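Sample entry copied in:
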Amino acid sequence: MSLTVYNTLIRKKVPFTTIESGRVRMYVCGPTVYDHAHIGHAKLYVSMDVILRYLRYTGLDVLYVQNITDVGHLLDSGEDRIMKGARREQTDPMQVVERYMRSYMDDMDALQNIRPDIMPRAAGHVPEQIAAVEQLIKNGNAYEINGSVYFDVSSFPEYGKLSGRKIDELQEGTRLDVSTDKRRPEDFALWKRADPEHIMRWSSPWGEGFPGWHIECTVMASKYLGANFDIHGGGLENVFPHNECEIAQSEALSGKTFANFWLHAGSLTVSGVKMSKSLDNSVTIQNALIDYPAEVIRMFVLSSHYRSPIDYSKEAVNAAYRGWQRLTGPALAVQQALLSTQDSNTPKVDFSSAIKLTRDEFTAAMNDDFNAPKAIACLFDFAKNVNGLLSEYPRPDDTTLQSIDKVYNDLAGTVLGLLPSNSTTYVNHENKLIEILVELRNAARQQKDFATSDSIRDKLATAGVILEDGLSGTTWKTDLSNPSD
């Protein structure tokens, strides 16, 4: 089965094809860096990360570009988001950009997202944006009024083909620039005149000003990927107006299809409510990572198909945590077994059919529009089989264990990013922690503090660690046949 993807542009699932054999050029709209990234960003960028990972896993050479918006993204009030951040912190706009761009990158690294190959910044490409606006004016697609330049939506008959909206249905104020000096409400800004108090400003043929939000993606995507490239990704909330405007100005400039495939991640709510600072329900990635390991946040995101909405709640993430433990417990147990010495009488085990079935079903799931929840379900089935094997054989042979380990590293690790970044170190670290707790329990027993001793034993048991007291001391083992809920 070849890879099929849901293309927002044509509203159906179709086979994925590349412009250039063996190579994919992929652009994803990046963040506006005026505050710390929130859990909604985790939903979007983990989803895009898994798409990137799977494409590379299949052998495709992917050039991945993700921009940084540091100018021109206006609030509905007309205020630049970066300027809002600068006023909030009483500092320079570019200082705000640097601070939160670094914070964003730290968050993405913590979530184990692969860094883009190129991360251009809007403010670093203002000359190219000015040149693009000049060309659109020459082409008859844009006009200048009082130092601002607007795209004439009526000059591009296909405007609305991504979102399904029609020009005559667009209403004033539907997240479009509603400046009164435009010819029509649906026209959008390519360049804005800077008011006297506006700090972020550049010289242009129309006077000092700054670029509109949409033109940056057109310029940077085409500069690094070409006028026509394979994949444009982003959040579903950006289909209109941002992505729609990108298409109009890009195709008006080049006469070529901007992106062949448009992949959009669904939205995220918090306890059933849209996330908003005004509602005091905004959850930053930094705060989420205080409560949960990064792999659990990934597990939570991937528990829903990337195109579907998802609700962030304590109950949902705790459920993802339990699922992650069930999924990775056998993987870590296999690595733990590989660290022990193989007995010369260790029986050979034929586990090849379970391995092949898992790989085949996982690939089929991911080939079906990157269906991560279904792929994870395949790994759950595999985990049950591995648990059965480990309970049946005291210590399977190295060849079998290495084959199982490779399945986990390839599928749960390389593709989904659900294994700890250094799982061998993780196993060793986990073992040391358990041994420390065993020593503390032994000390409590010697002091006849049986309440503490029993508490340590019971809590380890809930984590799947069983203690066995014998004449030679206390030993422990992981109880993989009955993982904790």
Residues 314-339 form the longest helix (26 residues). The domain at 4-265 is CATH 3.40.50.620 (Rossmann fold).
